[in-house]
Automatic annotation (TrEMBL):
This is Dihydroorotase. It comes from the Bacteria. Binds 2 Zn(2+) ions per subunit. The active site is at 309. Catalyzes the reversible cyclization of carbamoyl aspartate to dihydroorotate. Pathway: Pyrimidine metabolism; UMP biosynthesis via de novo pathway; (S)-dihydroorotate from bicarbonate: step 3/3. Zn(2+) 1 binds at residue 309. Its EC number is 3.5.2.3.
Amino acid sequence: MNDKPTLFTNARLIDPASGRDERGALLVRDGLIADIGPQVGVVADAEVIDCKSQVLAPGLIDMRAFIGEPGAAHRETLKSAGEAAAAGGVTTIVSMPDTSPVLDDPAIVDFVTRRARDTSIVHIRPAAALTKGLKGQEMAEIGLLREAGAIAFTDGLRSVTNAQVMRRALTYARDFDALIVHHVEDPDLVGTGVMNEGEFATRLGMPGIPREAETVMLERDIRLVRLTGGRYHAAMISCADSVDIIRDAKVRGLPVTCGVSINNLALNENDIGDYRTFLKLSPPLRHEDDRQAMIEAVADGTIDVVVSDHNPQDVETKRLPFAEAANGAVGLETLLSAALRLVQAGQVSLPNLLRSMTTRPAEILGLPGGRLERGAPADLIMFDPDAPYVLDKRDLRSLSKNTPFDEARLEGQVTVTMVAGRIVFDRRPN
């Protein structure tokens, strides 16, 4: 924490929680927002940062990121993930339990929480396993894991195919007001599929994954939510039919929310091109019509959150034939820039986009951040939404470089990232 206050002046203040979008200043003192508005008094001993009309907004909250540590630190450590997040404007990461050992024991959750606190420059909040060993057969100790610091419960990249196990988990989680986050993909319908089922997959000679692999699982889960009343979050949806299912569930007043990967918003199946394995993902990149449906759902609020789905993979798992390569792409550093494509195209307003990456994740997870108001945590980002650059994967701070946006022309760069009142990333010229 800085010893003296920090005053951001000449900023475009965007607070999705209150609808604020105005020119003004913001004062940070003791790790909290002390004052905000068009008129903020000069503080004699404050460090002054002239934003030069750049956007000042709450730090991004990424609800889905895979980190190798413990067990696969060569792919990503808590420290490197924090550095990558800070460069991308992400001030809070929800880490997935797909580690070795799996985060299905309170002692391991406690270890990761402490390790992240000691080594990461951003907040890292672990999600614990929903079932023991991520095997989908026996429910994990939700109550004890929650006491140890787990912020949500999920089997990460795996789906719980046993409906009775999912029913019990939702029922048990309801009593603790715990959040169940589920990867909606039926593994039997996925089968040997490696990309979206359709004409393009046929032309590439690749086995496809039907949209029904997602919608069948999602439909089942919604019915179980209606049966149990448990809080449920579909980790990532990717097709238009899923949007309709979520929208209907919300109309009926069910405690259901959902997310979408930035990859499914910014890319479609055609981007795979000549078997680009960095674009082999789960869920797969879909048809352009599905991508447009995802964008519309973010704009109207049906989709609650946008996530990076950060999943670092090393060279050995990606430099393989497409069908054999591992799923996943890094995304912490490119989340904001890739999402700003939607703003630049006039498809989503900047406040609405930021809401899906700040306020809504905070509300769903019960976190104090995601807003600009007096007394809120000083987790902030300053960024220029129009700053152009070409991404070079060698410049990424992640240990793994498997980005789908390598050599892409992007706009929007983070200038300053502040966590708990301390500047952890600074791109301002000297």
